[in-house]
């Protein structure tokens, strides 16, 4: 799993390459939390899942945890570039009721 984190204004864009599962979420959580606590003024997060090929319940928990973390500080979490199999998992889990999904970064940045 690879991770790229970029700050764009008050937004944190997180690009994940690989799986969101039990073996990767702890590393993801730590790296993102370091950014959120280490930098002042980050309000929103955009998760780019273009290169995510698998997600399990740990991955869903990771997303819900980041949603709560950002939401508790008045920000928004947006997800972009979701493939059909991951979108189906999102639909079955109900995560789409709390998190908006967009096709690309520009669209998500305009929505925050």
TrEMBL record:
It holds the Pfam family STAS. One of its GO terms (biological process) is sporulation resulting in formation of a cellular spore. GO terms for molecular function: anti-sigma factor antagonist activity; antisigma factor binding. The keyword Nucleotidyltransferase does not apply. Transmembrane segments: none annotated. Residues 1-112 form the STAS domain. InterPro entries: Anti-sigma_ant, Anti-sigma_F_ant, STAS_dom, STAS_dom_sf. Keywords: Phosphoprotein, Sporulation. The keyword rRNA-binding does not apply. In the phosphorylated form it could act as an anti-anti-sigma factor that counteracts SpoIIAB and thus releases sigma f from inhibition. PANTHER family: ANTI-SIGMA FACTOR ANTAGONIST TM_1081-RELATED (PTHR33495:SF2), ANTI-SIGMA FACTOR ANTAGONIST TM_1081-RELATED-RELATED (PTHR33495). Belongs to the anti-sigma-factor antagonist family. This is Anti-sigma F factor antagonist. It comes from Acetohalobium arabaticum (strain ATCC 49924 / DSM 5501 / Z-7288).
């Amino acid at each position: 799993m690879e991770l790229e984190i970029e700050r764009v204004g008050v937004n944190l864009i997180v690009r994940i390459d690989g799986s969101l599962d039990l073996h990767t979420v702890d590393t993801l959580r730590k790296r993102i939390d370091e950014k959120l606590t280490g930098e002042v003024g980050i309000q929103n997060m955009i998760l780019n899942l273009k290169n995510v090929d698998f997600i399990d319940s740990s991955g869903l928990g990771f997303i819900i945890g980041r949603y709560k973390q950002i939401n508790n500080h008045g920000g928004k979490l947006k997800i972009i570039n979701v493939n059909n199999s991951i979108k189906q998992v999102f639909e079955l889990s109900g995560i789409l009721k709390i998190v908006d999904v967009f096709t690309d970064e520009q669209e998500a940045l305009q929505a925050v």
